Automatic annotation (TrEMBL):
First-level EC class: hydrolase
Domain spans labelled Isochorismatase-like: 19-207
Pfam families: Isochorismatase (PF00857)
Record InterPro entries: Isochorismatase-like_dom, Isochorismatase-like_hydrls, Isochorismatase-like_sf
Name of the protein described by the UniProt record: Nicotinamidase-related amidase
E.C. code: 3.5.1.84
Keyword flag Ribonucleoprotein: no
SUPFAM superfamilies: Isochorismatase-like hydrolases (SSF52499)
Domain of life: Bacteria
Length: 219
């Protein structure tokens, strides 16, 4: 059974049985007050405000039988998967692997590396630990999606112009039809979010589609 929803640049048609929801990096360190993101001077409220919308999207996906994927930007404790170039950029007193306000910054198992409680993965959902910005780089995501014959990906999460956009572009290059849920993604820089939505759907959907959550709930 296929469903068609209003979207930009044109309607988006998908079959729930071959569709996955991919929630990018809804991690405590990026979203909660007192975490790594806030310690860098970012207004985390901009990210926290989408949590209820992402939770509603997740509930809809679970109800509709979509495969669900959660990602975490994370590194091994010995930093063997963190290129020095990545570690050396950013604030000198808050590098990946340093002790941060919620444990070691972007290290697997640190409290701040966890997904926020409201979006905790359920049994049977895939959790991808990704050392890059993109969800496909150095992960098993491609194989996991192929094994389930997934053809369409619906994206949500943070931050829009960094890990969400990178993952969506990687997916687009791999042949997936991708849609970004407009009100289920956020950036510390609102102008970057708006620019990313425009980039994705420009030139006839060069990266994919965008639509608000209401397009899905109405359908
Ligand atoms: C993500 C980042 N998740 N902005 N990371 O976008 O560094």
């Amino acid at each position: 059974m296929t469903i068609t929803i209003p979207a930009l640049p044109d309607p988006f048609t998908f079959d729930p049985s071959t569709t996955a929801l991919v929630i990018i990096d809804m991690q405590r360190d990026f979203i909660e007050p007192g975490g790594f993101g806030e310690s860098l001077g970012n207004d985390v409220a901009l990210l926290a405000q989408i949590v209820p919308t992402v939770a509603a999207l997740l509930a809809l996906a679970r109800q509709s039988g979509w495969f669900v994927v959660h990602t975490r930007e994370s590194h091994a404790a010995d930093l063997s998967d963190c290129p020095p170039a990545k570690r050396l950029r950013g604030a000198p007193n808050a590098r990946i692997g340093d002790e941060g306000p919620m444990g070691r910054i972007l290290i697997r198992g640190a409290p701040g590396n966890a997904i926020v409680d409201a979006l905790a993965p359920a049994e049977g959902e895939l959790v991808i630990d990704k050392p890059g910005k993109g969800a496909f780089y150095a992960t098993l995501l491609a194989q996991e999606l192929e094994a389930r014959h997934i053809t369409h990906l619906v994206f949500a999460g943070v931050t829009t112009e960094v890990c969400v956009q990178t993952s969506m572009r990687e997916a687009n290059d791999r042949g997936y039809d991708c849609l970004l849920v407009e009100d289920a993604t956020a950036s510390y820089f609102p102008a970057f979010k708006l620019a990313t939505l425009d980039m994705v759907r420009s030139q006839g959907g060069i990266v994919g589609w965008t639509a608000p959550l209401s397009s899905f709930t109405a359908a």
